[in-house]
Amino acid sequence: MLKLSGNFEHFNELDFSRKMFKVTSNYHLPKVLHQDCIFLNKGNDLHPNFDFQLTFNKKNLKQSNKNIIFLETDFKYLSDDDVLVLDSKTKRTRVLYRTNSPNNYILLTERCNHYCLMCSQPPKNIDDSFLINEAMELIDYLPRNLSNFGLTGGEPTLYGDQLITLVNKFKVFLPDTQLDILTNGRAFLNQNYSLALAKIKHRKLRIAVPVYSSNPITHDYVVQSEGAFDETIKGILELKKLNINVEIRVVLHSVTIPDLVSLAKYIVRNLRFVDHVALMGLEITGFTRANFDLLWIDPWDYKDILSEAVSILNDYNVPTSVYNNQLCLINEDTKSNYQKSISDWKNEYIDECKKCTKILECGGFFSSAVQHGYSNHIKAFKNEANQI
Amino acid sequence: MAKFLNKEEFYKDNQKYSLLPFKFSDFDKDTKILSNMIGEFQLLPNSTFEDFVNNNLTNDNSLYSDLRDKHFFTDTNTSVALDLLPIKIRTKYQMLSNFTALHIFVVSLRCEHSCPYCQVSRQSQDKNTFDMDEDKAEKALNLVFQSPSENIKIEFQGGEPLLNFEIVKFIVLKAIEIKPNEKNLSFVIATNLALINNEILEFCSKYNILISTSLDGPKDIHNKNRPRKGNNSYEKTIEGINLSRAYLGFDSVSALMTTTYDSLPRVEEIIDEYIKNKFSGIFLRPLSPHGFAIKTKSYSKYRFNEWLDFYKKGLDYIINLNKNGIEFFEHFSQVILKKMLTSDSDGYVDLMNPSGLGIAVAVYNYDGKIYASDEGRMLAETGDDYFCLGSVEDEYSDIFTSEKLLNVLDTTFTKSAPLCADCVYEEYCGADPVFHYATQKDIVGHKPTSEFCNRNIEVFKYLIKLMNESKYVENLFRSWVR
Is the link from the previous residue into B159 a cis peptide, with omega within 30 of 0? Predict the structure, then answer.
């Protein structure tokens, strides 16, 4: 698992209290561009000119007129165009964007009006509004040809109009970047709010909304909020009325699995106009660890239910993907919907996988699963040519 | 970390629900069928039905969830059905706002076949009397493009349209020339393929014209149904199908089957003929009661019960084929299943409501008269011009918004027609004014004695029964609505 935040050390006083940087290892970067960049020293010697420099060599922490930042080797993955924030008071860095990651997300807030049983990012009632300002600033540092970017939480819509302003800035600066927003969708039942979002006319915006069951009681129970189901469905309807791209996300666990086939039928009969349905295996982190016994079901035990749900969605041409499960735990008929999806910084494989011939097609495991629990039915695919 | 609430805490104290409008009927002696205004249906055991309507069904019952998901009620936990129902109804009737998309040009009544059941064709060499001329064709085209529909499909019919291919070419070229930019235009020729040749297919290929032909089954049935000089209709058709596919692409050629008395005991062989020729499905059509078919008494021999057995046997056979790995579908069932399992509307004119007369289809006859449907012009050939809307000399608005047409559509609308309005299967059916006029001399018709009504209800029930009895069939049928 990659480390995305950690402590740093320095020797001299720093020229800033908090500052965002783009990482560069371009030795000949024109001086005019140095201001927002931090130079990544890969060898032992420092760059003669850069004001801000990163080093993994502690010997470089000595008297200098430059801002020299020492990071542990955990951060050796850093590469050109990555973006990080340094805070001189807390002496902590956070990596906000990694160019080598196919799916970059940032957390906009830890506040949430849901309290989902399996939340991977347990909500906190704190003022973390600096995060949305940081996101606004980050846009200036992102590469113009970025293919996709995600905003997550907590519940991003708690920012109200500030979120609209943020999306607008994405549209202005990164119009071709696919922008995914993870939200419970309830705020969009307010027509004015949906309309404000639609008016931005971001061509590559997608609102990803979780629907856990067609049974309002099950859905409300999973998100621990009474009345959530109706508001979420109405939010989706408002968004689709305005032709905004909507994805439905379903996390698969032992509370949602019994209703999954009914949910698939509900989607094809009532929400057939959604743009994508993502059926996602459980990540064993956050609240899921506290509720492990309540939520855990071996994906092997629900693979037939998953097949049926996927086939219903396929029959109605609702674009559907299966995320996060391992390839050896899904049926043959589900494979065309399978996506290798686990974010690279939290993705791993186990010993059995080393023998597997399909490891390159498989998303593997969340690091958290390797640590806390995974299916008893993981089995390497053999080379088919060797079979008779 | 705050405490999580148990699921029980999300059940409201007051579990009462409010019924939304629905219709119901006996399905069999132990079961009721319920359906609502968007065609969602549910079978309930009689006792559960009693519980349900008396507000005694509890939300731990799985049927409670099914009924809720299908909008049979709202309860204290959800009322989102009230937002979803109007959207689904709008979707279902969306095609009405498109208006007439299918425009049939009868380019010649002449035919080199002499099929006994055929309603219209003439054995004549007289081109002047039975062929459409350029003047009428051009006037018809001017009307076609006044239709608000974004998609315009021109179908060439006969007789045998290839006997007057010159006018087909004229219409295609003219249509392309005068077509407004925003409209999508497509063409199809309904032909027996006996006269198809490379030259015609070159033209079809150049202008993306599709072929719709007739294939009635194995050689002996087909040739008996479709006599022509040389008794080689079957051979000509198969040859023509293969040649057309080679020119136009495999999927550009479709085939329709006409059911006759000889077909009835042989549905499996007919289906086999379609599989042999690599068609992906078949349309087990009821024989229309119109025109010569009534006159020749072939219709009276062919009661709806016999057709129903034919259809059921055929459908069972097709289900078995699929079980054995042969993907194959039945088109009539597909049209109905779409109505049962989606909010989409199919363009199949015989099962539309309001009727598709004039507003989904218009027929421009060789003689310049305009009819509200293909069956309407067939009826005219037997001397009854009831469904004539005017002629190509008339103004568009006089033809398509005439009192006469609107009155037919309005009077036969099934949501208000006697018995239809109360029928639990009404959402899957359609108004068929031409059928009822032809058989009962009344556009609304007397439904208890209507073969259209009785036949359709049996088909609806059979489809629901099959889905209810077998998960395999439920999944198969769902894959047909794709």
Answer: yes
Question: What tokens were used for B174?
Answer: 């003219």
Closest CA to A108 of A52, A167, A53, A56: A167
Instruction: Domain A105-339: give its CATH superfamily.
Output: Aldolase class I (3.20.20.70)
CATH architecture of B98-403: Alpha-Beta Barrel (3.20)
B78 to chain A, closest Cα gap in Å: 6
Instruction: Using DSSP, state whether A10 is helix, strand or coil.
Output: coil
- What pLDDT digit, counting tens, does each position of B31-68 carry? 999 999 999 999 999 999 999 999 999 888 899 999 99
Which residues lie closer than 8 Å to B83 by C-beta, 6 or more apart? A233, A234, A237
Neighbours of A200 (CB within 10 A): 17
Q: Closest Cα partner for B427 from B23, B84, B67?
A: B23
CB contact under 8 A, A269 and B2: no
**Domain ranges, ordered by start, for chain A:** 5-97, 105-339
Place of tokens 């955990």: A74
- Render pLDDT for A65-110 as a digit per residue (tens, 0 to 9): 888 999 998 999 999 999 999 999 999 999 999 999 888 999 999 9
Residues of A in contact with B40 (CB under 8 A): 269
Q: Where are the domains of chain B?
A: 23-92, 98-403, 413-469
φ, ψ (nearest 5 deg) of residue A341: -135, -20
Q: Nearest-CA neighbor of B155 among B205, B121, B105, B101? A: B105
The reply to whether residue A237 touches residue B87, judged by beta carbons under 8 angstroms, is yes
Segment 46-105 of chain B within 8 Å of chain A by CB: 59, 65-66, 68-70, 77-80, 83-84, 87-88
